[in-house]
Amino acid sequence: MLAIFHKTFAHPPEELNSPASNVTGENPKLPGETLSDFLSHHPDTAFSMNFGDSAVLAFVRSQNSHHQRVFCGIDGIYCVFLGTLNNLCDLNKHYGLSGKTSNEAMFVIEAYRTLRDRGPYPADQVLRGLEGSFAFVVYDTQTSSVFASLGSDGLESLYWGIAADGSVVMSDDLKIIKQSCAKSFAPFPTGCMFHSETGLMSFEHPKNKMKAMPRIDSEGVICGANFKVDACSKISSIPRRGSEANWALANSR
């Protein structure tokens, strides 16, 4: 899986961008180069979708029944989902999808759309209700929004980093991330979610802020940052205002 989003709306944490990317000789690549590399690594099983200069999504069809990969698009919302939700049937009933042919990516889109348009409960509450191993990336073409999350068990992989033009790159392929982002990358933190308007937060501990810890590689060079829950720092409660930009604020309790 590969997702690339333009810097003007993705707004990743500044700590992901390592100054060492410009001085170590390992230069980050432009999005077009990264996409070409990804497709060349999977010539028979990959496809991609371009959304002008805003975003690129690329997907490799699953060849392993034990490692599910699903791609779906509904009404301008696209989702790449890795893993399996053990309680998908119950979730479908809760979101009114019972009786329809539905997979994990379809469910995530419907849940995202419900949160975006009506926001009946906080996003962290929805994610805590997902049982299983998962990683997903959602791109909403209507609002030019990005929503991504990685499950708490860490059995799925997700990495993110900064490309040569400042775009955000997300992938489960560590080799692609390293080639694309040089030193400006990190593992996406488990038990967390990222929204392009509200930033990175823990869905397990939504009242705590996230803290960036510099990553040092084997050469002693700063390589992006690991993000951890800061147990000593709390987020002030923020009133929900009902717009698409604020559905993920998640502090209504």
Automatic annotation (TrEMBL):
PANTHER family tied to this protein: ALUMINUM INDUCED PROTEIN WITH YGL AND LRDR MOTIFS, DUF3700 DOMAIN-CONTAINING PROTEIN
UniProt-recorded name of the protein: Stem-specific protein TSJT1-like
Top-level division of the source organism's lineage: Eukaryota
Database matches in SUPFAM superfamilies: N-terminal nucleophile aminohydrolases (Ntn hydrolases)
A Pfam family matched in the record: DUF3700
SMART domains: DUF3700
Residue ranges annotated for the DUF3700 domain, each copy included: 2-229
Organism expressing this protein natively: Camelina sativa
Protein's gene: LOC104758629
